[in-house]
Amino acid sequence: MTARDFDGGLLRPAGEFEKAPAPAADLLNAVGAMKPVRTRTRFGAFALVGLVGLVWPAIALGHLPLRQDLSALPTWWVVTAASLWGLAFALSLAAALVPRRGDVLPAPGRASRLSGAAMAVVLVFVLAATARAPGVSLRPADLHWTLLRSCIHCASFVLEISAVFLVVGLLALRRLVPTGGARIGMALGAAGGAMGGLVLHFICPIAETSHVALAHVGGMALAAAVGALLLSGVGRR
Amino acid sequence: MGPMDAEAIEAADVMARYCRGEAAAFHRLYALLAPRILAYLSGLLGDKAAAEDTLQVTFLKVHEARGTYVLGANPIPWMYTIAHRTCLDELRRRKRSRVRLTQDGTLQSEPAAHLTGVSVDAHQDQTDRPDASVTASALAALDRLPENQRLALLLTKVHGRSTAEAAMITGTTPGAIKQRAHRAYVTLRGMLGNAESAKAEPP
To answer: Where do the H-state alpha helices sit in chain A?
Structure first.
């Protein structure tokens, strides 16, 4: 036996599939009583979760003080880093919630691939190009914090920001993702984590590579893991 | 997802009318897709009666979830996905209650279904085809494959779904589907011991 045997349709049932039994009474009753329904649009859930999720980050940015070294950092770096975090957010959220053209459901494989790639790109950028302004940027020790304490502080903030995305996303997806919930949840969590990372980019005064990698990108990874766990059992119709 | 074929276009059109509340469109959709969904469920459950019950539950869920349909999209992979999920739930339920009794307390006899979804009788007819012996041994070997490999082959080769669709239905990646299908070929080759197949390349 070869692959060609399968591709040649050797195992396909001869002729048509067998006839299915008539619809059951319950089903016919439900159909008999049906009314027109408003269907979903491809970008509806994306817009909803995006808009609701952005409220808290906007409030945080408006109320918390900006990092003291922001004006001392190279503008190109500030813009590039913010763009990367923003792109990671948009890509991950779209992968989690927007089905491809012609599909009804978001593709779980694409969601985990894209959000994983977004996390990797942000991590590489942070490891390779975290900028600090000597004398102005802080290290955890300057605040009398250990690296661990600074990481817990910032990762908690990332998780708080991502919680809104996870809750709203979970509500939007609860009847929509019959399979692959963990992968979709991973992308949704990564999107929330990326938004948290973007906000921290403007407010966190600690500019040490290890802190940014562990707390900001690590927080994003943690949010992705929480999303995967939360959504793994959701969506059973 | 590539351009939709004629069947998918028809299914999308019927689904749109169904969402607008046309009962006739439901019956057309049922006629169009119930046989293949039943075949898929029979192949997974190996029990025709359970597959028929699960088919009804699947269509009930499709009915309840029709508001989540995206107009213009191909509803076939979506319905397979719902059927797949419903089937997993049924299999879990079976694990919890291993023995099913009829009302008089005797064991229920279940009409068997073959892996491809056809009944045993129909499968007998199928084995009357010229390549019957190869088909029969292939089907027997398929039945012994690990579940995820069997699913990958069932969806892509028996039901003609693309790897992207099969990935969506089972909640995994297209790469994983390809890999499982490849492993299934390798395992089948080993089972069937066909020396010629060693030269053939998987897709």
So the answer is: 3-7, 25-32, 44-63, 75-97, 108-129, 147-173, 181-203, 209-211, 218-231
